[in-house]
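Sequence only, no structure available. Ideas?
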Amino acid sequence: MNGEYAQPQHISDSIYLGAAIVLSIIGIVGFLFNTCVIFIMIRDPRLWTPQNVIIFNLATSDLAVSVLGNPVTLAAAITKGWIFGQTICVIYGFFMALFGIASITTLTVLAYDRYLMIRYPFSSTRLTKETAIYAIVGIWIYAFAVTGPPLFGWNRYVNESANISCSIDWESGEHSNYVIYIFVFGLFLPVTVIIYSYVSLVVTVRKRAAEKVIGQATKAECRVAIMVAVMILAFLTAWTPYSVLALMIAFGGVHISPVVSIIPALCAKSSICWNPIIYIGLNTQFRSAWKRFLNIPSTLSEVSLDADITTNMTKLVTGHQELPTHHMNNGGSDHPTGLIMCCLAHDEHRRSATYADRYECNLEMKSSRNPQTLGKRPETDIGDVSL
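Reply:
I predicted one. Tokens follow.
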């Protein structure tokens, strides 16, 4: 896969043309969809749930690849070879590796967060906007720790065999220990955490189903978990061919022709397209925000509960679980004791002014003076939330 060590081999003009066309499509789609996600999230503050803060980081990483990476590779494909020199090759290879590891680490954080949200729905240590920002900082530090060593002499970034992009030196065998390092911490460990999170999540949901304690909030968490799972599956599907090929070259002594190596490389680059498409397709919050931007009325059938919704006074919980309440620091004059949050489906244009408007989420709050009614609200009173 690395051209510096591969035997010269002619690549036909049609192969370069095909690669250029695919790279153009990937770049345009990746740029438009990720820009759309970022634009809508910046414009609509109601989308800034802790989970969406993490997704914003993923969209930013994918957008950076479409802006900084794809044009370079596209230019190389059009000119039928790398024309930017060794320094740009190192910079390109490092940042593409950095963004790739940051993406899979972000998906790992999302997967583990889904597990915690469903396994421990009332935990005080659940993800908040502040901890989400800390998580993002940690993601980028981790990604640099995984991809930075070649900049300091432990392996290096070189041209791939098709000579239209640069990556880790998989082929020379000089730094095989780094290849092990990047696969352990850049692929195997994240995938292990993802598998653990979703296996544990499925076990938890089945246990609650058997005990008949699944409410609307748990169902909503499962819908979000499915969205994250689809994003992870798409990412791994895009990157697995490239990863397998790199392992075969590094440790199997396999020599791959430049023409063949282009295919898994293009598959890996396509990963920047799938996440925003899946997010737009499966996230009802985003679709509602997009309709608000276009002034398209929302319908009740399109309204869906998002279990990440919180206010400054309590967490959204439903089902047969106890509903804990938290006291405000304003002396308690603005809301009654024993506040119960009931989420009702509303048309966006017919919402009445309630506590929901004050806390920037479409929640109609109902109160109960009788503490004995806490946690005994029937599930039929719990509707959906539209953000």
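The beta strands are 157-159, 166-168, 339-342, 364-367.
Hope that gets you unstuck.
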